[in-house]
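Entry for the shared binder. Reason: the reviewer on the internal report wants the predicted structure included alongside the sequence.
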Amino acid sequence: MSAHDTDAATVAAQQAAQVLGEAAGIDRHDIALVLGSGWGGAADLLGETIADTAAADVPGFRAPSVPGHGGRLRTIRLENGSHALVLGARRHFYEGRDAAATAHGVRVAAAAGCSTLVLTNGCGGLNPEYSAGSVVLLEDHINLTGATPLTDANFVDLTDLYSSRLRRIAREIDPDLPEGVYVQFSGPQYETPAEVRMAKTLGGDLVGMSTALEAIAARAAGLEILGLSLVTNLAAGIQETPLSHEEVIEAGQEAGPRISQLLARVVARITED
């Protein structure tokens, strides 16, 4: 991406933020959430929806191409008066191998005034102790996509990328939440058993196809980040049955009510500070 493209991405994010702000009738949002597989129900528990916009009506977004993924952007007024921007139109890297498009949502969150970003996903577990339905706090990630949303000499420090402060808040809500390292692959194919072994050798606990590129862009934009993964299955070579997208959706639906309540409580606690 050239400097011109970077400027264009910034303008697109500002335009999208303006559309969302006008739809909600507010000047700024406070916290943004990207809701991955299984997490969508949390939006209904956060508070009152004051704007609900189709992705195709917001600059830089489009309807998702993956079954089970949402395609709307919502503004929700929390009980404490804060405003949450729910980005239900995640652009995955595998949908176009375009890191800038993948990062658009979080850049819009920053342009909309958000100071905090919650990234969620459904993923495969490398630890046999993670059963389907387990929630894991992200403490770090390994980016194996070979891509970055950053350009030029933009040297962004990724130390404590997934905020230790926000992780402490999440553990105040659920002290039993484990922490793990998320490994992002490019997808859309699932990881081979050999790739899973490699990820585990590198220090990974979870594997998936989202989140890392978004987190990099969010840090560059100055957002404080909380990452939460729902383990929808054990990774290839660990579980005995073949992997399928239907399995991911089913696990997300089963865990949805429980993890949505958890996330809603975490968001309420974060926005109190």
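Summary line for the report: The CA atoms of residues 110 and 221 lie 6 Å apart.
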